[in-house]
Amino acid sequence: MTTSGLSAGAAARRLGVAVTTLRTWHQRYGLGPSRHEPGHHRRYTVEDMVRLQVMQRLTAQGVAPAEAAAWARRSPGTTGADPSAAHAGADGILGADGVPVATDGNPAGGGQVIALGARADPAARGLARAAMRLDGPSMRHILALAVEGRGVISAWEEVMMPVLIGIGQRYEATARFVEVEHLLSRSVTEALSTVPRPPREIAPRALLAAADEEQHTLPLEALAAALAEAGVASQLLGARVPPRALLDAVDRTGPSVVVLWSQVPATGDVSQLERLLALPHPPIVVGAAGPGWPTADLPPSATPLGNLTDAVRVVAAACS
Ligand code: B12
Question: What is the rounded average pLDDT of the residues 195-203?
Fold first, then answer.
């Protein structure tokens, strides 16, 4: 930034928000440009930009704009800052990244909340609140920050999974919020798909598929993204793969490892695994992933996969 500060357009571009948003934050919440030279438009200083970044982060986490602006105006390093103030939210809860965290009891989202527990990650709380508001842009923002900042495995386990499990419980208790579940699933899919895949010269040796009639695919999408991050190429067939189609795909591509996902017991028919293992040239590893498989009745040569980290390790080893 030059010593003379940034114009509104340049500040908006740097933050990735619309100029009209900056104008609103200026007019309604007093977060305007402070440098003034006679005969020129006001410019945003470094301190102004810090305030705007705090505002942007908190609103993306679901904090109400007026409250977010109050925190932004008091951010450390800005005029009138009270450094201790930035370490506790209005309700006294401190986020892991040092920003105040709105509690689940806050009425935002019409009083409808996804319960995450007291120790939930601030980003998960923000995601849950944005999900209940059906606020897709904020969900995308939070998820993108999580994936870029923490990597796929942590983003999945600390941010995405708790909210998915929470909305599942909400659905179970109320038979409502399918719209939230759908938008959340879509946003998770989009965030995971942005992780760059290995170059096309690396032939995928891992085949990932959901079991017959199995509609849940997000954990496999997380696996594909985490593998890509580790430089391992994979192919994901997607939801509801009939056994015959899976066998044909294995026959045609000869993968070293197949991971078959079953989320619900209705799709955890072990004959799908047995048929893969009985092929003349079976994959080195046939992974049974997901809570739908009957653990005690798995074929002895199938490899049970219990979490994302283990799955990445097993698949990467089989592909190396
Ligand atoms: C998103 C979602 C959907 C989406 C899926 C979208 C998509 N693209 O995947 C849609 C809307 C399609 C859907 C449909 C249905 N769903 Co649904 N869904 C979910 C939700 C919210 C998240 C699913 C998910 O991704 N789970 C993965 C992680 C987040 O959770 P987890 O499996 O508990 O995690 C454990 C392990 O799997 C493991 N793990 C986690 N990640 C990974 C990754 C890897 C690689 C490995 C190896 C392990 C691993 O660690 C965890 C601890 O053990 C769950 C809630 C839940 N608790 O899972 C309900 C849930 C699974 N759905 C449920 C139901 C009932 C259904 C439907 C039958 C609803 C209906 N009436 O139509 C249908 C269809 C089912 C079918 N035949 O497939 C129930 C299942 C209950 C049960 N045990 O039978 C759940 C649990 C919701 C609930 N609490 O009632 N669903």
Answer: 95
